[in-house]
Design a protein that fits this description.
4 strands, two-stranded parallel ribbon, mainly alpha, two-stranded antiparallel ribbon
């Protein structure tokens, strides 16, 4: 999407989403030189932001606690698998399981703690069952699209670093009371 289109959409809708903001940043970072029209569009956007005509939407103000619970379960299960665990794609397995589980959104740490506790009491078996099914499906999947492009394909170390950072940012106090069971 071009800067001009993003600005037009922001002016039309009255808000600039984090995704739109990131796309403008990406375009500016990767372009060696912006066209005059692009500078003019950026100037219009800045003016609209300053006057309040366009509001910048804040970054994520909520979390889906189910994501951290599923990722924890997937990592635990993958580490238990004997043999070639590098062949297991944590993202694919987690996405499959998450699509079959209810979301558990929270906007505060207290809400996240409540959702975690609720999941441990009511959904632990369902989470484990869906992750197990996801792993089985992943291991037995046909190669329909071997040329498919994963979203932001990264190394295993990158994924583990990102998961660790994600979990720490979503649940800074999680390790204090965690027993390792989900």
């Amino acid at each position: 999407m071009s800067i001009q289109r993003i600005v037009e959409q922001a002016l039309r809708d009255g808000y600039l989403t984090p995704t739109m903001e990131a796309e403008v940043g990406r375009i500016c970072d990767t372009s060696s030189e912006l066209a005059v029209e692009e500078y003019m569009a950026l100037d219009r956007l800045m003016g609209a932001l300053l006057t309040g005509e366009v509001v910048a939407m804040p970054r994520k103000q909520f979390i889906n606690v189910m994501e951290e619970l599923v990722i924890s379960e997937v990592v635990k299960r993958v580490s238990e698998v004997d043999g070639n665990d590098s062949a297991l794609d944590v993202g694919d397995i987690a996405a499959y399981a998450l699509n079959r589980l209810p979301p558990l959104y929270a906007t505060t740490e207290e809400g996240a703690d409540y959702q975690r506790q609720r999941a441990k009491e009511e959904l632990r078996d369902l989470i484990a069952e869906q992750v197990q099914e996801a792993m089985g499906r992943y291991l037995n999947r046909p190669e329909f699209f071997p040329e498919r492009n994963a979203i932001g394909k990264k190394t295993r170390e990158d994924i583990l670093d990102e998961m660790s950072a994600l979990l720490k940012s979503y649940a800074p106090n999680y390790e204090r009371g965690a027993t390792g069971n989900v």
